[in-house]
Specification:
127 residues, mainly beta, 7-stranded mixed beta sheet, 4-stranded antiparallel beta sheet, 11 strands, 0% helix
Amino acid sequence: QVQLEESGGGLVQAGGSLRLSCAASGRTFSNNAMGWFRQAPGKEREFVAASSRSGSNTAYADSVKGRFTVSRDNAKNTVHLQMNSLKPEDTAVYYCAARSGSSYYSVYSVPSSYDYWGQGTQVTVSS
């Protein structure tokens, strides 16, 4: 069982930055591929970024590529999402997700690929 807790959300002006963090419980964090997703009101949950088990492979949605960076610290059981040049359309609840039993280099962009989810953290970008 893995428990995930996101933090770092908030209100920021367009063009600003936020850094989200996701703390994971358990001793097998390094065996988990990790992902970030977001959901805006009235919209489907969408993929944002993903990291392989080691962090050597990452993937991004086209809408955030070049602005967001996912990283992980396996020694501290944490994964981060650095968000720069934020836009009002980035406003959403951001979720951290973990997939157990991942192959070493794989990244996953589909919500159903993940086994565990955090409660989410709100990010609001004002224009």
